Amino acid sequence: MVGRTVLSRAGDSRLDDWSPQLLKSRLYGQLLVDIIVGRLAPGERLDERVLARRYGGGLAGIREALARLALEGLVIRRARVGTMVASLDLMEAREAFAARALVEIECAGLASRFATEADIAAIRATLAGAEKAIAKNDVRALAAMDEAFHVAVAEASHNRVLAKMVMTLHHQTARFWLSAMREPSLEESRRALAEHRALADAIAGRDGTRAREAMRQSLGDFPADLRRAWDTP
Asked: 2 CB contacts (<8 Å, ≥6 apart)?
């Protein structure tokens, strides 16, 4: 399943020192989303001045945002060459997905134990407007909701290290899906929303077993999904 929700959470001060109110956080979020959905394409050269005009920020903010994206492996910065969007790598995507499965299933179990009422409300809030986005086939908004949802669940685990890992791993796998795969069908998007809601309900119900299984269902089977997507005309 990117709007202001994901931009805010992507720079959440609970995860690092990037306050969501800062310009660099907004610029980071906007660049991140456009890389994930493929508007900034793999291999594309990034001109800092052009980016500053496009996103309405100064050069300093753009450079800080690009530095953070470079740390996440989403852009490559080379002296005398410049900055470009990192290429897509199937093997890295497979490995990132496998890591997500380990980390996020554990996060779901922890969230069922430690989530506060505010955490649960934050998880549910990420899905607000999902049905409208599905009806409009707004891939950018759906990507934002999925990003924000998984980060919110990770934060609800109250394990900062795991939450940071989830954010980085999610960026890598979401980018691969949205850049290299076909767009999800209406039915697939609705099923994904139902799976997200089931996970939120399991966490709210303090059911660790159900939360872990719901997360497993939400993540899906990367190799099988990959084969099915590539086999679809």
From this structure: 29, 32, 33, 36, 37, 140, 141, 143, 144, 147
| List of residues 6+ apart from 59 with CB closer than 8 A | 48, 49, 52
pLDDT single digits (tens) 214-231: 999 998 877 666 655 555
Residue 1 and residue 150 in contact, taking contact as beta carbons nearer than 8 Å: no
Note the CATH number of domain 4-41+43-85.
1.10.10.10
Starting from the edge strand earliest in sequence, which strands make up the sheet with 75-78, in order? 45-46, 82-85, 75-78
What lies within 8 Å, CB to CB, of 229 at 6+ separation is 181, 182
DSSP 74: S
Task: Give ranges for CATH 1.10.10.10 in the chain.
Answer: 4-41+43-85
Of 112, 118, 133, give the one whose Cα is nearest residue 212: 112
Q: What is the pTM of this model?
A: 0.78
